[in-house]
Amino acid sequence: MDVLEQRLAEWRTHVGRSPAVAGVDVEELESHLRDQVEDLRRVGLDDDEAFLVAVRRLGAVDGLSAEYAREHGDRLWKQLVLAPPAEDRRSRGRLRQALLLAVGAGLAVQVPRLLGAGVERPADLGLLVLLVLPFLVVLVGTRAGAALGPRGWLVAAVPFVVGAVAVLAPPWAEGSSTEVLVVLHLPVLLWAAVGHAHAGGRWRSHEARMDVVRFTGEWVVYYALVALGGGVVVGLTVLLLQPAGEPVLEQVLLWLVPSGAAGAVVVAAWLVEAKQQVVENMAPVLTAVFTPLVALVLAASAVVYATTGLAADFDRDLLLGFDLLLLVVLGLVLYALSAQEPTRRPGVMDRVQLVAVVSALVLDALVLASLLGRLGELGPTPNRVAALGLNAVLLVDLVVAAVLAVRFLAGRAGADRPARWQTAYLPVLVVWAAVVVVVLPPVFAFR
Fold first, then answer.
1. 3-state secondary structure labels for all residues of the chain
2. Where are the membrane-spanning stretches (predicted)?
């Protein structure tokens, strides 16, 4: 293949990736491009020059995609459920693999119930997570580009072994707080194994970690969409089977709900891989909508709690709610950074993100002050120590994120610095989750 044909093939592949451009459109565009190249070669341009000028005349790929998206918007929705014609045998093979793994996850989550064990304790929920996520690790670890070797698979298995021992082995006391903490932090530890598999073991790479962030954000979007659809199916099932009697309905739901939720974990990951470009179009929109809303809520909350003295009345449930909110803010900022170009100039959304980060920082400081007061007054408990550690970890992250955001807005730091900081800090969150899962329970005698 000569250089011109190679460039045309690369251009064809690039244009064909757009979900709005069908195969017949690519052929038509390529025909126009070839005519332009031929005309330019006749007037004396060499192949390289003719190709570059012809592509420029034809228009930027993004512009073409946008134009086709406007004319054929229905194709974008079809891409959610139909494979593009160019996706051939390999795509069908991945689909079969994903479906088998989804069925495996759905059956695995039923094993404890079939063996007579119910979901009565928090540790039982942890066991279900341990049974489901290995199927997701296999899917992402075998995707094209992951190339996880034998050593990588062993590393990915370590969090599951540690998690299984931490959940199943301890003599949990009745009403144990550490048992609940282990179950709450276990998914973070296991998701590190998912990220390791997705990155192909290249955890030191900023780009690989950022890909894991994008995958996680898109997985959440797809899982939410699948869950909404699943809720409709469950509702219809209840409506249709109600006349059959409660025992029949109960048996159907015992299979449908847990197995559907477990299988959706794998299906959502397959959708991220197969339909990536559709969500890539949605991600900037979602962050643009939710970041200002979250920033507004955080700023209002920070002002209220800082000026009215309500911060002194933080109870355990409110502290948990604030911690969840701070984690959502962190995830939203991280996902927004993953969708931005590293060479961009400061814009309105960067200022909005700074408002969100500074507001979260104020709230985190208030929560920390309240926690330290409780520790001094009432002494340490598993919940207080876990919350104190998480808020301290978040405080460091938010302080550095705020400083880097200010420096970027002032033109003293590149746009990629905040993103690099966030991906570099991710292992700290995983380490703290591991401390809560492994260290805290024996320290507090599994109470």
1. CCHHHHHHHHHHHHHHCCCCCCHHHHHHHHHHHHHHHHHHHHCCCCHHHHHHHHHHHHCCHHHHHHHHHHHCHHHHHHCCCCCCCCCCHHHHHHHHHHHHHHHHHHHHCCHHHHCCCCCCCHHHHHHHHHHHHHHHHHHHHCCCCCCCCHHHHHHHHHHHHHHHHHHHCCCCCCCCHHHHHHHHHHHHHHHHHHHHHHCCCCCCCHHHHHHHHHHHHHHHHHHHHHHHHHHHHHHHHHHHHHHHCHHHHHHHHHHHHHHHHHHHHHHHHHHHHHCHHHHHHHHHHHHHHHHHHHHHHHHHHHHHHHHHCHHHHCCHHHHHHHHHHHHHHHHHHHHHHHCCCCCCCCCHHHHHHHHHHHHHHHHHHHHHHHHHHHHHHHCCCHHHHHHHHHHHHHHHHHHHHHHHHHHHHCCCCCCHHHHHHHHHHHHHHHHHHHHHHHCHHHHCCCC
2. 98-119, 125-146, 153-173, 179-199, 220-241, 253-272, 284-306, 318-339, 351-373, 385-410, 422-444
Q: What's the CA gap between 365 and 373, in Å, rounded?
A: 12
pLDDT tens figures, 331-370: 877 777 776 766 677 888 888 888 888 988 888 888 888 8
The full set of domain ranges for the chain reads: 3-82, 90-278, 280-446
d(CA 314, CA 306) in angstroms, rounded, equals 12
Task: Classify residue 360 as exposed, middle or buried by CB count within 10 Å of its CB (0-12, 13-18, 19+).
Answer: buried
pLDDT digits (tens, 9 = 90+) for 405-434: 899 888 888 878 888 898 999 999 999 999
